[in-house]
Amino acid sequence: MPLSENLTMQTDTTSERIRCYRKEIWDRLTERGAAPEYPIAFPSTLRSFSLGEVAEILGVSGSYLRQLSIDGLGPTPETGTAGRRSYTLPQINELRAHLASTRPKEALKFCPRRRDGEKLQIISVAVGSASTTTSFYLAQGLALQGYRVLAIDLDARGSLSKMFGYLPTGYPVHNASMSAVLRYNDDRVSMDSVILPTNFDGLYFVPGTFELFEFEEESRVRYRSKFGYPDASIRMVDALKEVEDRCDVVVIHCGHEGFLTAGAYEAATGVLMTVRPEWPEISSMTLSLAHFQHFVSLIEQAGRPVAYDFIKFLVTRHNPRDLLQQEAVALLRDSLGNNLLTATAWESGAILQAWTKNRSLYELSAGEVGRSAYEQAMETLNSTNAEIMDLISEVWGRPPMYVSRASRTAGKASS
């Protein structure tokens, strides 16, 4: 008798029969050593950065860094052909510490980490056009500037996690997401248990896995049962307090799940909404705003006031040569005023090429995607990130500096 018929006879329900199919196939693959281990994480190391790139990141001249190296001050760079110097990201952060100690008046510029009395910044990126890409490049951009960053993926499909090279799909992963930290029984784990390193020094992340679906369903059941309203939001707030001493910024990539999203909005100190400048996409964004309003109103009705440091909107996938998009951006700017970020994230083939290589643009050199496309994409990424970093500086009572620095860099690239 064929195995499939035997399984059908042995099981009572369709779901049990499907489970048996999966187990049988998986066991056969395991016997042959052909079963992959999940989650799959692409092992990758971050490239080194040229002396010119490091000078732009730190906001100093290349000649100054070259002289530091000649004098034996700071970390020793790698030396390539023709004596060209390059630095790893840990070495760049060593340079930050050295410059902050030798130039104390500019310490905040070189080492922007939180000081005593400055609160943890938690930026929730709402579901929208290119919101995953925005979360990804914001987290990496902050880490490149010397911040300690935690990125959290609340998408059960793991869209942000895949960009980090983490593939949780294909087999259930236990205790690998915020679900394990937030769950309602005594099996809750600490944040340390679910935080993973990345190839960026100072950047860590919590993956999104199918377990988040289970947490969302349990929250829904509790909401409809005798347990009453679930405290998912409060649990999210409490969980992030565990990383307060080790992080400067938390970037939360919201998924489509309601209770988890409500938790992200309650924990947030700032919210970023993305929109593509096309009329259907703007209509869709207004629906996201309605959901946002609904979640916040529920939190307020529970007696917990919500006060964000900022709510900002970012135009993504922008083609500045498209006349209809120009009109749409003008409408958004007229409607939202200063709440719409000045910089827009342009549609970029270079960013798409990086994604097909399982890398971010920050991880690639210009030659791998074409110099012109690379420089244009980097300009738009750095400009949008600069505005957000200046928002953080403002919250912390610091003078803005990133937008002006990005403008100087963009001018140099254009020339």
From TrEMBL:
Output the InterPro entries linked to this UniProt entry. AAA_dom, DNA_Partitioning_ATPase, P-loop_NTPase
The domain of life for this entry's organism is: Bacteria
Q: Where is the AAA domain?
A: 128-278
Name this polypeptide is given: AAA family ATPase
Please tell me the species this chain comes from.
Rhizobium meliloti (Ensifer meliloti)
